[in-house]
Amino acid sequence: MKTSSITATFLALNGAAIAAPSESNIERDLKAFQLTKLTASLYDQSLPAYRIVNFDLNDPNNNVDTSCSSAWSGGMSGDYKFNCSNPNYQVNFPSLYDIEDIKLNVSVVNSKAFAPGEINGDKWKCENTGAEYPSKVCKWAGVYDLPIVLA
Fold it and tell me: Which segment of the chain is annotated as a signal peptide (predicted)?
């Protein structure tokens, strides 16, 4: 009798483990945020130097389009968050000293979903403007896919 009770309990627990979706399956089902019109400008003629980053964000998981913009100075904390035009989305920069190599995070407010990324490489085209303001402008060629992870 004990054996059949133990076997039934084992089978029930094993079936529950198989039926429950794992976080890795949920993560694989999430589609990446898509960033378009991604630009960064450097205003370094007076201190503190500012970096302005702009982009449009598409969240295909929630069918949301929003614009994000930030004005980041060299002395700001990496924890500071900028709201996008839809305040359910925020962006912060763990590292934004060199606009040719930007680390950013996009997060969904009150959610475990966030998307870390590093913007650099061949699609990131930067040019000195020769003007006083801004002194350098960078643009991403195409769509920047920002994979989502769960915290």
Answer: 1-19
